[in-house]
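Extended Data, record ATP-dependent DNA helicase
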Amino acid sequence: MTGMKSIPFTVAKNEHFFDRLGDYIGDVFYDILPEQGFEMRDEQIYMAFQLEQAFKNKKTIFAEAGVGTGKTIVYLLYAICYARYQRKPVIISCADETLIEQLVKEGGDIDKLEKALGLEVDVRLAKARENYLCMKKLDPLSEYTEDEEILDVYDSVPDFVFDQGISMQSFYPYGDRKDYPWLSDKQWEQIGWDPLKQCATCDFRHRSAQTLHRDYYRHAKDLIICSHDFYMEHVWTKESRIREGQLPLLPEASAVVFDEGHLLEFSAQKGLTYRFNYQNITNVLTGYQGQDVREESLQLAEDIMALHDDWFDYISEIAVRVEGSNRLEIPADTKMREMAVQLEKMVQELLEQLVFDAELFTMDAYHTKIIEEYLEFFTYGLSIFLKNDEGVYWLEEDGDESSLVIMPRLVEDVLREEVFQKNIPFIFSSATLSQDGDFSYIAKSLGVDAYDSFSVESPFDYEEVRTIKEYGYSNEAEKYQGIAKQLEDNKGHSLILFRSEEEMQGFRQWIEGQKWSFDFLFEGDKEISEIVRAFQFNKSSVLCAYHLWEGLDVPGEALTQVIIASLPYPPDDPVFKAKRKHAANAYDDVDLPYMQLRLKQGIGRLIRTEHDKGTVHIWKKA
């Protein structure tokens, strides 16, 4: 697509853009959309006026608007017009892939706007690396796997990926996780992006799925839609990528909209997290030992691997499992800390040896780059681990795999400096941003010092269309039997929200072997948008999930009952323990706000339009 798209209204030389924008928005909401069958709402008009001021004055605004206010249509209209006015795209950052799907799917909000206003919106998706195929993993796997579904993926890879002689002009994006909806999450892990693969020196680099998708979305004229995780990865890696001669993950934007903005803090923490897989350093250093290097370097690498194994074994020995979480708490321990200090010192020494060896010997550039980057990553993560009270750390176990995870405790200072100092509009949109109208908690946690804010309630008459019932239970079997009766009485048509994957799998085991008059769909069995689509069109099915407390938008008879399997308090894991430790009142300041926010979001999955009705069942431990 060539050329800049025009603003959808005229602006004379003696007129100001924002004056004409206000007139256009008024025409859209009072005349054009109602003529197309849209319902005009006072809450929507009020939100439009508030957002106009934020865009005009380049302010940060917290726009809290209840379900049914049409908030997405409002921010999309302003984003499209502002992008064309500034000749730079607006980035819309969503909580997860489910929310992205709601925006871009056929019949979604962008599609509705295009049809109603006669617009052609240039919208492109920017996804995290985990969503793209890795040929460095798929190519060798195809030689020996017997998994027909993975072989189907291999057969679908375009010819230009393997043919070095084909012109780059014939390249096109491929290899999106969404292109292979039949694969489970476990299958995708075998062929998706791998943090140990060095993309910068990969021989598939210029024809990889990740590279081609990035080149495509960077040229968006109107909107680039990404997840909060991806946006924060862009922020944290921007400077280092520029230093290395690479483009930042996202281009310069004229404005940023954070949909479900109350979840941005978690993505910011996640983006600064360091994850050390037990096997990674062994794999990296084994590659180093395969190079032509000095004997003392080989011995040092061997000593590091031995100490690292002992350190991990000791951490695994003292780690304490946390119920409802895959995070194992690591208690403060002098021996563990002393081993980490020694490990950091030895890895720093090996980094110096690597520079010396690279000058003395002909080392493979690909392996050298992997080793150097991983060792720098390893030592920086250890430095956070060893600083008192700056990091939060835990152990994760997945089958035979163990990983040490290190996360910064606070992110507001970095966000203040790297994000909110920019002189562009930042729009936070969600039904849940404040605590009883007070936005100071979210503003402080994100490093936002100056902001505007407003709240508008949902126009839906919840008392008429929604019933909320609460139940107590003393054990899981009692609860499951109660949930089963609720499902049968409603003949499916239900969403069950679980506090954790562990809780969901417990329910899954309980229902196995029993006869049901409807189908069960479980998060993780297929690509998430495929599961949501199946739920929407198989109107008597039951969707079981632990991530879909927000973002899921399934109106109509497919979803007439939401069952909340237990109150969504945060897990008693290291991240929330750190938050509680630094709170004046742990329950009131951390646990209760988190639970109430998530519960409110979960309840909000039921009523999506003025025609919806149904029941919410909430199960509480007696």
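Summary. The longest strand covers residues 391-398.
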